[in-house]
Specification:
mainly beta, Immunoglobulin-like, 3-stranded antiparallel sheet, 6 strands, 8% helix, elongated
């Protein structure tokens, strides 16, 4: 299957104790998933993304399973966003 390599952009902010991750792509990105160093529950973590939308993913304080205090800066530094296209051999 031929898929374009999407350029995925993220923006991470913190609001009222919730980390919000805004994700957008320049082309269709199937099966997008996120990873960070800490053990957390993302509000969504396997989705398709089109170039016409921005997806917002949240991490609430109570969804940080490691017990650490999570900051937007920490998420920004450790966030990895991948899609199905990233699993292809180069």
């Amino acid at each position: 299957m031929d898929l374009l390599q999407p350029q995925i952009e993220t923006s991470v902010t913190e609001k009222d104790g919730t980390i919000e991750i805004q994700i957008s792509a320049d082309c269709f990105a199937p099966f997008v998933w996120l990873e960070i160093e800490d053990d957390v529950i993302f509000s969504d973590n396997c989705f398709n993304l089109t170039s016409e939308e921005t997806k917002t993913i949240c991490i609430r304080k109570e969804d940080v399973l490691s017990g650490k205090v999570l900051s937007a800066d920490n998420v920004r530094k450790t966030l990895k966003v991948r899609s199905l296209r990233d699993t292809y051999e180069q």
